[in-house]
Design a protein that fits this description.
Helix content is 32%, strand content 20%. By secondary structure, the protein is of the alpha+beta class. It folds into three domains: 7-151, Adenine-n6-DNA-methyltransferase TaqI, Chain A, domain 2 (Alpha-Beta Complex); 152-232 and 370-429, Orthogonal Bundle (Helix Hairpins); 236-366, Adenine-n6-DNA-methyltransferase TaqI, Chain A, domain 2, CATH 3.90.220.
Length: 429
């Protein structure tokens, strides 16, 4: 896509490169984040599993390179060209094979830099300067400041940063809300059906915390033995098939795969984490299983996680399965009931060459089954949280698609923001 803006190198545009420390500090249980390549995800930092380092090491590792708000962290290796913006207020150290890009503000508005390094022209420069290696492709620090990119006027940069940043902030807000909602539903499940807190409270003569009288009356005040250990009296242990049907994905022909959106998306294990299809197929498989937003999907190779699908209606690929709750609004109960058995399979597979989940494993899944009245009361609390998660996830996918569609058009000048706050499309002569 041809640009309407003058082209400058990053160096000419006042964007400097700051290299990392070429060593790794020891990990600590708590402390400052030590950002590494796995933390760079879709333009943002994901600190969920980040390494932590001591305060002493943090100051040592940031003497030369202390990330600040609106800096861009660039990966030079493994996934060269991928970037993430440093959020306001984050104190972190930079891992190996990462560098910082920082604008002096003279020609590049600092909040705009994160978008400049995600457009088509950026990736064209990555391909131009990429060093192809036997093990890893990489970028040289000396080459990055020479990247030539179209630079819009500063007022245009402000407008682009505002538009794309607003969309991205909403996506991030949805993600954080979903994390909170998921934690609430999971914590309630654990309290009621794993730790049996209401039962223990009643045994000790206490009122169950956070529970009205009618709900508390549904729980017994003693335990009984079971194959899974002590469980509330009157409850029982049963097969997962008592609360859910399991539908398995099918083997679709790779010759029918396409990336142009022809047919229906085909969901593979790699597509589960971001709820985004990578391929489509026009094949109508006679044994195909279709999923929709809100369905529980599990990958059967390499990872044992239950995902609540938040993407479009899709086919399930082979080595994947869906757990379909038998009761209305029982999705949350089924979702958290299978997490324990999945973890057990994963533990049993540790040390093997390839980790698999098979039907024979699922056939052995057992769970604690309370009376229907208790499950219904849990559904009243958890189902709205789950529905909101799915709704927010679907909305975020739509916003991300809009953001990604606008990005190249705004960066090139094909689409511009008018002074009145509307849109202007530039038409070539």
């Amino acid at each position: 896509m041809a640009s309407r803006w003058p082209t400058l190198s990053l160096r000419e545009a006042g964007v400097s490169l700051i290299d990392c420390e070429h060593r790794t500090p020891p990990a600590r249980e708590s402390g400052y984040p030590y950002v590494a390549i796995p933390q760079i995800k879709q333009g943002r930092l994901d600190l969920t599993d980040v390494r932590r380092i001591s305060e002493t090491d943090f100051h040592d590792w940031t003497r030369k390179t202390r990330p600040q708000a609106h800096d861009v962290i660039l990966s030079r290796r493994c996934n060269p060209g991928e970037t993430a913006v440093v959020p306001d207020g984050l104190k972190c150290a930079l891992g190996q094979n990462l560098v910082l890009l920082r604008s002096d503000g003279s020609k590049v508005f600092a909040p705009f830099l994160r978008w400049l390094v995600r457009g088509p022209d950026w990736w064209e420069q990555i391909r131009k300067f990429l060093n192809v290696g036997a093990v890893f492709d990489s970028l040289k620090c000396a080459d990055v400041p020479n990247f030539s990119l179209p630079i819009p006027p500063l007022p245009e940069q402000h407008a682009i940063a505002h538009i794309l940043g607003t969309l991205d902030d909403k996506i991030e807000l949805n993600r954080r809300m979903n994390e909170t909602l998921e934690a609430m539903a999971r914590a309630l499940f654990k309290s009621w059906f794993v730790d049996f807190d209401p039962v223990r409270a009643k045994m000790e003569g206490r009122k169950p915390a956070g529970m009205d009288k009618a709900t508390a009356a549904l729980f017994p005040d003693s335990f009984q033995d079971s194959p899974l250990g002590a469980i509330p009296k009157g409850w029982r242990v049963g097969s997962i098939y008592e609360i859910a049907d399991v539908v398995y994905g099918a083997s679709f022909s790779s010759r029918r795969f396409n990336t142009s959106g022809n047919g229906l998306p085909l969901i593979r294990i790699r597509d589960l984490s971001d709820h985004s299809p990578g391929v489509w197929t026009d094949e109508q498989h006679p044994k195909g299983a279709r999923i929709s937003a809100g369905d529980i999907v599990v990958g059967m190779d390499g990872e044992f996680r239950a995902h609540v699908w938040q993407g479009p209606d899709s086919w399930l690929n082979q080595r994947m399965c869906q757990f379909k709750p038998k009761a209305t609004d029982d999705t949350a109960f089924v979702l958290y009931s299978i997490q324990g058995p999945l973890a057990e399979v994963e533990r049993s597979e540790v040390g093997t060459t390839v980790i698999h989940l098979g039907k024979s494993d699922i056939d052995q899944f057992q769970t604690v089954l309370p009376p229907p009245s208790v499950r219904i009361r849990y559904a009243h609390a958890a189902a709205p949280l789950l529905r909101f998660r799915v709704k927010a996830g679907v909305q975020s996918r739509s916003l991300a698609a809009l953001r990604d569609a606008l990005l190249p058009k705004l960066l090139s000048g094909e689409l511009r923001v008018s002074g009145a706050g509307g849109w202007t499309r530039e038409i070539s002569a």
